[in-house]
Fold this protein.
Amino acid sequence: MKVNEKDLYKALKKHFGFTAFKGLQESVIKSILEKNNTFVIMPTGGGKSLCYQLPALMQEGTAIVVSPLIALMKNQVDAIRGISKENGIAHVLNSSLNKGEVARVKEDIQKGITKLLYVAPESLIKEEYASFLQRQKISFVAIDEAHCISEWGHDFRPEYRNLKEIIKRIDNVPIIALTATATEKVQEDILKTLSITDATTFKASFNRPNLFYDVRPKTKNVNADIIRFVKKYEGKSGIIYCLSRKKVEEIAQVLQVNGIKAVPYHAGLLKNRAKHQDMFLMEEVDVVVATIAFGMGIDKPDVRFVIHHDIPKSLESYYQETGRAGRDGGEGYCLTFYSYKDIEKLEKFMAGKPIAEQENGHALLQEVVGYAETSMSRRKYLLHYFGEEFDEINGDGADMDDNTRNPKPKHEAKQDVKILLEVIRDTKEKYKSKDLVATIVGKENAMLKSHRTTEKPFFGIGKDKDSSYWMALLRQVLVTKSIRKEIEQYGVVKITQKGLDFIDNPTSFMMTEDHVYNEANDAAIITNAKAAAGVTDPILMKMLKELRKREGKRLGVPPFVIFQDPSLEDMTLKYPMRVEELSNIHGVGDGKAKKYGKPFVALIAKYVEENDILRPDDLVVKSTGENSGLKLFIIQNTDRKIPLEDIAKSKGLEFRQLIKEMQRIVYMGTKLNIDYYINEILDEEQQEEIMEYFMEAETDKIDVAIEEFDGDYDDEELRIMRIKFISDVAN
């Protein structure tokens, strides 16, 4: 069918009120109207949905739009109904409808009223729907979020793999696949799986020049960092992404008590989920804190910032989520907090999955690590990942990222890379990162002793530099694919052929040094001196640590028993000068404040006076006061000697979550008596051995304790004994 251009523009004006198309829209629409299989790769904000909506409205019959989320469907159906007098012009067919509603949808399709039918892939599989659609006039099938088809994609959904068979059964009609993000491997997979290798492909540039990309180290005060940032955007819209529902709830609450209009959004909210989404779209709230379930198809043009509290699982996810900022071409700030610990957490989640899935997931994660740790232009790195070249000097948006604004220092590390690779090779590729680094810096542990690595000539070969240096180098070398992490024996580092070649012929390796972000110099975020005063005070931190050490010695307890590092760091941020003010400090309860606080607040008061410090009262992050009911419940039930598993079950907690809550209670200065439980799992001698260890330990970290006991006790046993130790010795 030859497309009349005049008719096309007339239809655009009639249905959408536009006089011109955006980017590739016109070419895509012509391809669809000419009945071609069509593949569209267009970034978020590029106007993908109009590409299939307009041809559907212009043609006879009903276009089926396969979409993965009910919220997305509802959003688009409402938009189409808004441009037509006929309510039945667009419908949803999914599990949320009752029998009467399904009958109404079918009737409108039969009458030829419905031009767009949005369905979930699961609904298409249903015999009742498939056989009904078989008898109707179908114009084409559009598959939105087509990357869900590919197991190499960031959002793989197995039910998408069967779409081709179902479509074939309904009618032999053109297929239009659309995605906002797909690497070349994913693109290939989509075309093959849908059997549309003949499709006319349209690929728009992935460059969003108005977005500023910023990756910052994730500190222990990340909540305070987020609050400071959001307050710079008062009255403007933003999205904060977290990986867990629990974190979503926690951050939404922290924002609320600090005077920011925020709501949580995740799958577990059921009724409130749609309500919160509407509140955000209607600007009743400024910020939505969400899991990745939020945002697909949310067409809010004026989102001014997107924050990732947790690093995403893939660069596709990252690109799509950050792409929700600045869709109107205005300001869009994309801030990500990065900690390698988060990557390790994501790796652990993958450990139980099938090997092929682990390999895919691990490969995607390594790309994320590479992006977060790169010192090159982030825009260039990102666009290169999607197969697009970018001129980082003259390209559109060339200076719009933290690396180009604040270049990270680098140094030549060719010899250190050679040392690292030789140690991996000479230890027969049997160690994980931690043990490799211990070998290089000469730190003995049970694992290294058992393999006699401590007797080797290379043991301690790099002790002139600290562990964190070698760990950072190892991660940067990992990104170059000279080494890899084993999938089967998860986490064991192996050397690749590329690494072996490097040993024989070392070439330049510019290692990026850890970049200390200077908040005070960045006008984009910090705009006043008061806010800049919120940076942790390293001089005071040193003084507080020395005082903690002296107090520990005087009282005969390890320093961590008194206050943990996060509490001291919070003191350097808020400068509490009276014992009562310690209740504002992270991890300090009333009991702990009264027992240990006096010398600490005295030191801080003296320091504030001598240095003429203006305390940043406006930056004191109020705690939510949450968990007080849970705290009381745990204290009462442990007093009644109720088994811990039963306490957890009655509150719908996992056992690990209960332990975490108990840790919080004792670290804030409250006693808990759990001897009744411990006596069931450990004998007297074992308890004594662990208590002695904690009394002499320099740190209360569990991974250090596990290493010390060489696996004699598991993680939970040591955590429960640490609760007893802090309760008995500190409180």
Q: What stands out?
A: The longest strand covers residues 211-217.
